[in-house]
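Lecture 7 notes: from sequence to structure.

We start with a single chain of 372 residues. Read the sequence below before looking at the structure.
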Amino acid sequence: MSVAIITGSAGLVGSEAVAYFASLGMDVVGIDNGMRATFFGEDASTKWVRDRLMEKIPTYRHHELDIRDTEGVSRLFDRYRSNVALIIHTAAQPSHDWAATNPTVDFTVNANGTSVLLEAARRFAPNSVFIFMSTNKVYGDAPNGLPLVERRTRWEIASSHPYSGKGIPETMPVDRTMHSLFGVSKLAADVLVQEYGRYFGMKTVCFRGGCLTGPNHSGTQMHGFLAYLMRCAVTRTPYTVFGYKQKQVRDNIHSADLIRAFHEFFKKPRRAEVYNIGGSQESNCSMLEAMSLCEDLTGEKVESRYVEENRRGDHIWWISDISRFREHYPDWKLQYNVPQILREILECNRDRWRNPCTVRASEMSLASLSTP
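Now the structure, written as tokens:
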């Protein structure tokens, strides 16, 4: 029996990972206590995804467990021990806005929770592969110091800069910058994952993601850019844009592309590795461009309001340089771009958003949960 333990298993990345690795024949154990609804309200609840996974995937075992619960996590790992081949840690408090409202909870979930999982892995499954979903916020607002040029619909990096045509690499410093409290808690976890790889020789990796997206995203204003924007377009809910003339740029990676990257690492793991991961130059957009795409796909005008003040520590321009990962894993390729991602988000969620009381998890398709 080969077991994959996946935290945040009802979330965007976690649910994609559950379906993918279950399709490979692994027994998947999910950890998710539904805290997304606590963070962002019932509209952001992932219960609908959890219920769908439990119904559609016979080998999936779900545990309503808090990753900060040392005894509970230890008992779970002790149950499976050497059968654990893979740990994918995606559970998190994911919003830098929310982190400022309760820094203690943010830090204990993101940093302490990661420490609990790493120690359980070291004690009970030291030969497993430990994949951590980190974030580009570990770099703080350092990217805002790059030479940017204003275009008609976006900010773009100056063509003379070494990052032009590539994106931001892992060599960008993490010091002397405003991270946001969320960025600090994730950086603490990120460095700890690396240290367990270096100090204890474990097979660990940090994937520093840009915008992660896909049809399973329960997006809200505080977190889940593309999914929430499309939801606003469909339901005619006003969308608020914060600063940078609505021209801030993000690369966006579909959760299915991300999980295939996880699989490549799982097949050929390394120790204490770090990769920037995202849509790169192939899949990115500005806020203005994303709103225009939503309007084209829905035929509806996106109602929006603009707030001049940007979010503290927010990036003006982020595009990931993924060349290091591609060098190590040349068989991996992106399969989605932003228009394709938005179209799939719309097709998979339109009815649920318009009729939230009548669409049940049992009536939904697993089409959005990818297979290899």
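Residues 357-372 have pLDDT under 50 and may be disordered. Keep this in mind for problem set 3.
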